[in-house]
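>> received
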Amino acid sequence: MKTKTLTSAQLTELQHCLQRINEILGWTQPIPDAQTMHRSTAHPRKRVAHRVTTATFTYRWLSSAPQRITALYQHLLRAQWIAADTKPDDFFSLFEGKDSHVRIKWTGSNLQLSYLIRVLTDQNYISTPQGIGKWTCVYNHFVDKNNRQLPKLNSLHVPVRSKMAVEQLAELLNPHR
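>> returned
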């Protein structure tokens, strides 16, 4: 099938036809005009800058079970979801609730990190300071294997293949299991 580029006049005419069809069918959803449609394809969306913060997560049982963070660190290393050169103290500092400039190189999939953070916060194993969202902490303290900021993690779905593995890793922070 050969593609054809339409002119602005043709797009406008097509828009009017679609609008008339919608009226006949009783649909009330407006159709954007041809100029808007044409402009939106000409200029790509700008990247959203994330809020900069040094705030970190606070592990709920930091004073009574700090070894649980070490266990999570070791399992993430074995699974190769964090870089092999990640220092234990750097990883631990992400869960102390103190300001930190640490960046952890995440080598697992973005889905895995997104779901792990979601499970940890939903289970109230970790929390963020007042006024700081969990994704703000993630964007400021995790980078990909090329040291670039990770894309939108908040809109990712549950990983099908590694769902159980992520949930088991999250349970490492639960001192009651």
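>> Strands lie at 58-59, 104-105, 126-127, 142-143.
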